[in-house]
Amino acid sequence: MSDESEVMSTDIMSTGDRLIYMANQIARNLAAQRDADVQTAEHIRKYWTGAMRARLQELAAERPDALSPIAAQALRRIAV
Amino acid sequence: MSFSRETDHGTPAAIATGKSVTLTIDGQSVTLPEGTSIMRAASLTGGSIPKLCATDSMDSFGSCRLCLVEVEGRNGYPASCTTPVAEGMVVRTQTERLKQLRRGVMELYISDHPLDCLTCGANGDCELQDQAGAVGLRDVRYGYDGATNMGQAKDQSNPYFDFDPSKCIVCSRCVRACEEVQGTFALTIEGMGFDSKVSPSQGEDFLGSECVSCGACVQACPTASLIEKSVVEVGTPDRAIVTTCAYCGVGCTFRAEMRGEELVRMVPWKDGKANRGHSCVKGRFAWGYAQHQDRILNPMIRASVSEPWREVSWEEAIAHTASEFRRIQGKYGTRSIGGITSSRCTNEETFLVQKLIRQGFGNNNVDTCARVCHSPTGYGLSQTFGTSAGTQDFDSVMQADVILVIGANPTDGHPVFASRMKKRLRQGAKLIVMDPRRTDLVKSPHVEAEHHLPLRPGTNVAMLTAMAHVIVTEKLYDEAFIRERCDWDEFTDWADFVSEAVRSPEAIEPLTGVKADEVRAAARLYATGGNGAIYYGLGVTEHSQGSSTVMAIANLAMATGNVGREGVGVNPLRGQNNVQGACDMGSFPHEFSGYRHVSDTATRALFEQAWGVSLDAEPGLRIPNMLDAATDGTFKGLFVQGEDILQSDPNTHHVAAGLAAMECVVVQDLFLNETANYAHIFLPGSTFLEKDGTFTNAERRIQRVRQVMAPLNGYADWEIVQLVANAMGLDWTYDHPAQIMDEIAALTPTFAGVHYDRLEAEGSLQWPANDAAPDGTPTMHIDGFVRGKGKFVVTDYVPTDEKTGPRFPLLLTTGRILSHYNVGAQTRRTANTAWHPEDRLEIHPSDADNRGLKDGDWVTLRSRAGETTLRALVTERVAPGVVYTTFHHPETQANVITTDYSDWATNCPEYKVTAVQVMASNGPSDWQRDYADQARTSRRIAPLEAAE
Question: Where is the 2Fe-2S ferredoxin-type domain positioned along the sequence (chain B) (predicted)?
Answer without folding.
Answer: 19-97
